[in-house]
Amino acid sequence: MAQPIIDLNNVSVTFKQGKEVVHAVQDVNLQIQPGDVYGIVGYSGAGKSTLVRTINLLQQPSEGSVTVDGDIFFKDHQQQVSKKELQTKRRNIGMIFQHFNLLNETSVIENVLFALKHSDLDEDAQEKKALELLELVGLKDKADFYPVQLSGGEQQRVSIARALANDPKILISDEATSALDPQNTNQILDLLKKLNREIGLTVVLITHEMDAVKRVANKIAVMEHGKIIEKGKLQDVFLRPKQELTRQFVGGSLAAIDTLKAFDLDHLEDEELFQLVYNGNNVTQSIIVELYRQLNVEASILYGNVEVLSGQPVGTLFVIVKGADEQRQAAVKFLNDNNVTVTKVDDRRIWNE
Fold first, then answer.
1. How far apart are CA 330 and CA 192, in angstroms?
2. DSSP code string of 242-283
3. What are phi and psi of 6, to 5 degrees?
4. What is the pLDDT of residues 251-291, one digit of tens each?
């Protein structure tokens, strides 16, 4: 396996707020390989923003080491390189944010040129590069427009072009699609995937939206209370979530939530609500029909979906399984024996909030 392009080893970040000690990041170990699209997902307050500042070398950890592109920058609470070296490396890590941070009084191309002010290129070469970057993100024809004349999605594309100006190997997207509508969100995510595929860009996707991670990531880490509670290949985590929060994220797509809200799920008798997740080998099988045929157990499908994760189809069902306790237990065993991950859904806060 190649050397990680980002390697966080036992990283913790602690702040003092008055007399209170805040453990923003706790003992995080994270290795991101070159060419990954790595999704880091968690709700507000999980520690994602502090972790981002550690990865882009703006936050010195209280403990642990931070290695980026083969260079150790922080270790055991000590900065390992000069301030100048640190600033140089920071410029080589691209960043895009929820708010586009564009210069509204300057044109689109001038916004991109602003990021090249420290480069060794002459003015003609800078302009040529800026136009090439705008062409890469599909906005060359709007080089002379001003940000106010662009849609939100187009403004984020300008931000991406600007972030790529110094040829970074890493691009960090910090909730960059949170302010966009679904169509623009998907277009930006697809652009990030295109950049990953075509120029080998390593993308770190920080988000609270599982749908964004599912669309483009190949790996995922789930954060809660400053800790990474689960991580791995996207499909593995999706098919076999170990933690309750992960199961919430896996089952918490917007479509599923909207559908489940329509049902009265608080008064089930001789019935239980289950989430079923199954991989490509089972997607084409009528598993619910087989459940009735072989065990005479009825299951009502409330929501179903098939998605492609890392190139493989993965199915999700929310079903109400009916019958006595022993029948429901037999149904769960049957599904598990057929490589279906079954999670009993007791906590319905995810769609009741």
1. 45
2. -SHHHHHHHH--HHHHHHHTTS--S--SSEEEEEEEE-HHHH
3. -130, 125
4. 666 667 777 777 777 667 788 888 888 876 665 567 888 88
Report the C-alpha gap between 294 and 56 in whole angstroms: 55
Instruction: Give the DSSP letter of residue 109.
Output: H
Pick from 258, 330, 275: nearest CA to 298: 330
C-beta separation of 79 from 66 below 8 A:
no
User: Which single residue is written with the structure tokens 């954060």?
Assistant: 223
Question: Cβ(259)–Cβ(220) under 8 Å?
Answer: no
**Under 8 Å between Cβ of 64 and 8:** yes
CA angle 124, 170, 142 (to 5 degrees): 40
Contact (CB, 8 A) for 204 and 7: no
Cβ neighbors of 185 (< 8 A, separation 6 or more) are 177, 212
Contact in structure between 109 and 131 (CB atoms under 8 Å) = yes
pLDDT by residue (tens digit) across 222-238?
999 999 999 999 988 88
Residue written as token pair 């990680």: 4
Structure tokens at 96: 């895009």
d(CA 197, CA 195): 5
pLDDT given at position 1 = 64
Report how far residue 130's alpha carbon sits from residue 166's, in angstroms, rounded to the nearest whole number: 11
Given the DSSP bridges, would you call strands 219-224 and 37-41 parallel, antiparallel or unpaired?
A: parallel
Pairing of the two strands 93-97 and 170-174? parallel
Look at the block and give the residue holding tokens 């950890």. Answer: 61
Count of positions (residues) in the chain: 353
